[in-house]
Write a structure and sequence with these properties.
By secondary structure, the protein is of the alpha+beta class. It contains 15 helices and 22 strands. It folds into three domains: 237 residues, Rossmann fold, CATH 3.40.50; 72 residues; 136 residues, no CATH class.
């Protein structure tokens, strides 16, 4: 049963962080019975609300009629209203989307923009108040949608048929606070209870004619499949919702176990996320564990089988998502972002000297992937100079400031110490048997138009110390773990 008392009881349990009279709510109102009832209840409870209506212009005069109906409802109850009118058909064609997908993108993008606008307006109002120091900070705006228990059942069945896995069977969450700050206060109540509330309170509403079109998957499940199933399982709604609650509990347990497993297996090596193949093989073929890892890197459930294959693929094999790549590299799988940030930083002599004038023997300059340390040395013995790759000992008289620390590019070349001829840096790195990701993370330190150090690998022969050198610049490299 739905009334003010049962609604408030559920609200207090499901949304303890949301104060009805302190939070500003944007209510998505189509004009249908569900959203009209939600708006009426929130208004009756004296909540601070704005009605938001989207006219998708998909049903001609009917769409315009729905808009006018919602405007009249808002006027009757003196609730502020915002309306967004959009050519959905054109949007879908432009972005090559289905109508339902396009409508969803449109409405949630607009809801987000509207909520941000209200947030900014309320914050500005407080700032402009003479007593703003004593005025409580406004609570973030929350979007309310009128999803109900029947929507929950339909969604769970759709996810079951699509094979979305255990999480999909948990259904529609009552609360979200990620991309959108959203609550669904009718998710506990059935369509029948909502219709009864409307009748008892004399509420009028509109019927969307597209709800009867069975070419939409949800409508087919709602209007054909569930009624047929209901003849064999009279309590189908209650049973599915009860099962989804148990599945949600199980999903939370599974999620915690999977996260714990990968927390122990994920290793950051030289800034690259890696998983040892022997560790991954502990759950090889287990879709639940694999999905628990790869979903956070943009992969889709349909890629599970291919991801498992990469464990036994040849070195260098990869599989990509929209945001990341999984690369097979010997005895490990590397997880690499598709967005590689280029290093490009200018190091002025004054930066080094200023630190040294303050009494520091060693000056430090941070980079994206590590730390460069600079030290001038005047009394030295060439024979005792360290040959560690992460230390460069250079003739200070040959260095032209400022220096440039940047990411390598394909055309770069230098004269590696001891080689006696120039060599492309890409070839030099390949000879070191570095994987592609490590290559991308390697920087060069240039003086003028000359590369004087392939950082952490080899100095350039043109900057080496000679018996006649009187002052050297020692540069050390510490890479981020």
């Amino acid at each position: 049963m739905l009334n003010l008392e049962t609604f408030k009881e559920y609200w207090d349990v499901a949304f303890p962080d949301l104060r009805l009279r302190r939070t500003h709510f944007v209510i998505a109102v189509s004009g249908g019975v569900d959203s009209i009832v939600l708006a009426h209840i929130m208004h009756t409870l004296k909540a601070n609300c704005t009605i938001a209506h989207v006219n998708f212009q998909l049903r001609g005069a009917e769409s315009d009629g729905d808009e006018q109906f919602v405007r009249d409802f808002a006027s009757q109850y003196q609730i502020p209203i915002q309306v967004h009118k959009v050519d959905t058909q054109n949007y879908a064609q432009t972005y090559k989307l289905g109508i339902q997908e396009a409508a969803r993108e449109i409405r949630y993008a607009w809801f987000a923009a509207l909520m941000q606008q209200i947030n900014e307006a309320e914050n500005n109002k407080v700032q402009s108040s003479e007593l703003h120091a004593l005025t409580p900070k406004p609570q973030p705006v929350v979007l309310l949608t009128a999803h109900h228990a029947n929507d929950q059942v339909e969604t769970i069945l759709m996810h079951l048929f699509r094979g979305t896995g255990i999480h999909g069977l948990t259904g529609i969450p009552a609360r979200r606070n990620d991309i959108l700050n959203l609550a669904r206060p009718l998710i506990q109540f059935t369509k029948e209870a909502i219709i009864k509330y409307a009748a008892m309170n004399g509420l009028k509403f509109v019927e969307d004619s597209s709800n009867a079109k069975e070419e939409y998957t949800r409508n087919y499940i709602r209007n054909v499949l569930i009624p047929q199933l209901n003849t064999h399982y009279p309590n189908i709604h209650e049973n599915i919702i009860a099962t989804s609650k148990r599945v949600k509990e199980a999903d939370e347990i599974v999620t915690e176990a999977v996260a714990h497993f990968w927390k122990k297996g994920l290793i950051a090596k030289k800034g690259i996320l890696t998983v040892p193949i022997h560790y991954w093989n502990k759950v090889k073929g287990n879709g639940t564990y694999t999905w628990g890892l790869i979903k956070q890197f943009g992969f889709k459930p349909q890629q599970l089988e291919e991801v498992h294959k990469i464990l036994t693929a040849s070195k260098g094999a990869l599989i990509a998502s929209a945001t990341h790549q999984l690369i097979q590299w010997g005895d490990e799988i590397q997880i690499v972002s598709n967005e590689h940030t280029q290093e490009y930083s200018v190091i002025e002599a004054s930066t080094i000297l200023t630190q040294m004038e303050k009494g520091q023997a060693i000056a430090t300059v941070p980079t994206q992937t590590g730390m460069l340390q600079f030290e001038y040395i005047e009394n030295f013995d060439i024979a005792t100079i360290s040959k560690e790759a992460n230390e460069a000992y250079l003739d200070a008289s040959k260095i032209q400031w400022p220096l440039l620390c940047r990411t390598c590019v394909a055309s770069d070349y230098f004269y590696p110490l001891g080689l006696g001829k120039k060599k492309k840096i890409n070839q030099f790195l390949s000879n070191l048997k570095l994987n592609p990701t490590e290559k991308k993370r390697t920087n060069i330190l240039a003086s003028g138009d000359k590369i004087m150090w392939l950082v952490g690998k080899r100095i350039d022969d043109r900057f080496k110390l000679k018996p006649t050198s009187t002052k050297l610049l020692k540069i050390s490299w510490k890479e981020k773990p």
